[in-house]
Amino acid sequence: MTMSPSICLAILLLALVSQSPASASIPGTSNNGFAVAAPSVPTATQFLQAHNDARRDVGVAPLTWNSTLEQDAQRYADRLSIGCKLEPLDIELIYLQNTYNGSGYQDGAAVTASWVNGRRWYDYRANACVPGHDCGAYKLMVCSTVQELGCARRTCRSSPDTVAVCSYFPDCDYNDRPY
Ligand SMILES: *[C@@H]1O[C@H](CO)[C@@H](O)[C@H](O)[C@H]1NC(C)=O
Ligand SMILES: *[C@@H]1O[C@H](CO)[C@@H](O)[C@H](O)[C@H]1NC(C)=O
């Protein structure tokens, strides 16, 4: 039996309509908690989702994206991309930041994954990093008093390597446990 063209069209339209809620994902939604690994995911979404996954893992409320913080991160990442090193810059720090540099092209998900790696070095009882290891970026990612973030990645000026910055607001008291 063959379907008439109009029934075909109706079925197609139904399929499209029923798909639209799932495909209408906006930055800030976390796809029911499942990370989206497709490379087509916008950089902002990659950064935001990885932060909120790490926060959910320890029971901390999600962050929202803030374009003022994104501009701050872009400004700082632009400058870091010149030397490609994690050196302090002669520009005023307005917000708390996490910074990154790494070999080759690294997307937002890879950058945040390197920070989340610090989780294994964070001693919650002592509220300190295991000596000789860095967990500071992870602590800032999951800090419960932080509410907003904005991030940017840049390819270095004179190599295919990556620098990235996330700026956070309002504050995180490093003397307190992050959560
Ligand atoms: C974004 O952050 C800036 C600086 O902290 C703040 O003034 C502004 O209200 C924030 N915007 C939104 C939409 O939350
Ligand atoms: C990252 O920065 C450090 C200095 O902070 C530098 O030694 C290293 O070469 C940089 N890595 C890359 C991939 O540029």
From TrEMBL:
Q: What are the boundaries of the signal sequence?
A: 1-24
Which residues lie in coiled coils? none
Keyword Signal, does the record have it?
yes
Q: The SCP domain covers which part of the protein?
A: 42-176
SUPFAM superfamilies, sorted: PR-1-like
Q: Which Pfam families match?
A: CAP
- InterPro entries given in the database record: CAP_dom, CAP_sf, CRISP-related
Question: What cellular-component terms does GO give this entry?
Answer: extracellular space
The protein's UniProt keywords, in alphabetical order, are: Signal
This protein is called what?
SCP domain-containing protein
Species whose genome carries this gene:
Triticum aestivum
